[in-house]
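Researcher: I'd like a candidate sequence for this fold, 390 residues long. If you have to choose between options at a position, lean toward the conservative one.
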């Protein structure tokens, strides 16, 4: 649109190389940004209109930087207008969709479907008979593992023929909450929770390249943090601890020391006012700067940038006794940040760990580039707000 407005209908006949390059780059960046927002917007709890600005900015910036490095000529004003229009279109369009379109789902009243399908910003319609009548819905939710009466099975088949989506109840719950209920792990089968091995290889490459690229920024920040810790209190700058890692193998995790040396206490932080925490420690914990040395754990292969948070050996042994399936979370590499951290924050008690495991299992089951990208964006928000720190 900005191309046609500025160049007119004769663009296709008179455009030079710079104009064509600008047009193609804008089209590529537009497609990339819209695709990125749509894919991440389908994930639980994601607000597409909030993702539009950062996603569009990155998707327009990367092609532009590539062109600058190659010293090719582009029309900067035209490219900027394309960026602003794409950002405005995505933000306003997705905001309107979120605030004026409510998903309506019909529920088949058998099995687990009625107990799982409530709230979550959905307009639920409980079916009394196997017919929709004049009710318009976006889909039908049923417990497909339950022994449904024959007339309800015919109803679901008819919905499928009419192109009305039929969703399994537990799958719908996971999609809406971002959690896999522990009581349904048998139903999901362990095989369906196995991570994508192909993506694991790509994820490892992305981890290494990201750490190496960000070292010019993170190394000076780590040096400043180490100096502040050394000036405030005696003791080593780094804190090391044995954690439960990939495939239940113990490893040594590195963190900046945030507590006084020689203070006695339990093996985890009770709250943000723990008297063992130093003044510098409170700051670096709040903004997650104490986690930066774990980048070297990522380089060693002990950890990933994104994954379930590794627990201390004491906590891991405690949870294993009280929390079903706890060790199954070690089927992937632990991460510096994870789905549970950005959704829930810090959890040490058993009830909190049960909820945390449900988030971890959702991540393992649905691990993908788009989910990792959403976690990265939420981690940035977490770092800026200090959400969930202790």
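Model: Candidate sequence:
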């Amino acid at each position: 649109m900005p191309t046609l407005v500025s160049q007119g209908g004769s663009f296709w006949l008179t455009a030079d190389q710079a104009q064509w390059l600008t047009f193609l780059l804008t089209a590529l960046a537009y497609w990339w940004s819209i695709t990125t927002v749509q894919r991440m917007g389908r994930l639980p709890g994601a607000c597409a209109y909030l993702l539009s600005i950062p996603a569009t900015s990155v998707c327009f910036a990367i092609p532009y930087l590539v062109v600058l490095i190659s010293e090719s000529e582009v029309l900067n004003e035209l490219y900027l207008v394309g960026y602003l229009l794409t950002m405005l279109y995505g933000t306003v369009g997705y905001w309107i969709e979120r605030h004026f379109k409510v998903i309506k789902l019909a529920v088949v009243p058998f099995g687990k479907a009625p107990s799982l399908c409530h709230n979550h910003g959905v307009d639920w319609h409980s079916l009394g008979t196997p017919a929709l009548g004049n009710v318009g819905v976006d889909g039908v939710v049923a417990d497909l593992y339950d022994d449904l009466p024959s007339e309800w099975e015919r109803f679901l088949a008819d919905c499928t023929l009419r192109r009305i989506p039929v969703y399994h109840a537990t799958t719908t719950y996971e999609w809406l909450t971002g959690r896999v209920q522990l009581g349904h792990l048998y139903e999901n089968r362990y095989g369906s929770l196995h991570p994508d091995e192909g993506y694991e290889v790509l994820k490892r490459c992305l981890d290494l390249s990201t750490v190496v690229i960000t070292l010019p920024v993170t190394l000076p920040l780590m040096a400043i943090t180490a100096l502040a810790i050394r000036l405030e209190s005696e003791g080593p700058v780094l804190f090391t601890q044995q954690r439960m890692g990939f495939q239940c193998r113990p490893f040594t995790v590195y963190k900046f020391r945030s507590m006084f040396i020689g203070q006695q206490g339990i093996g985890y932080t009770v709250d943000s006012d723990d008297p063992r925490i130093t003044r510098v420690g409170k700051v670096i914990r709040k903004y997650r700067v104490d986690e930066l040395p774990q980048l070297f754990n990522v380089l060693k292969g002990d950890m990933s940038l994104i994954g379930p948070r590794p627990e201390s050996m004491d906590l891991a042994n405690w949870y294993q006794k009280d929390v079903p399936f706890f060790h199954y979370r070690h089927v992937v590499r632990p991460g510096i940040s994870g789905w549970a951290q950005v959704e829930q924050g810090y959890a040490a008690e058993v009830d909190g760990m049960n909820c945390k495991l449900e988030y971890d299992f959702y991540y393992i089951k649905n691990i993908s580039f788009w989910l990792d990208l959403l976690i990265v964006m939420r981690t940035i928000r977490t770092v800026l707000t200090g959400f969930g720190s202790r």
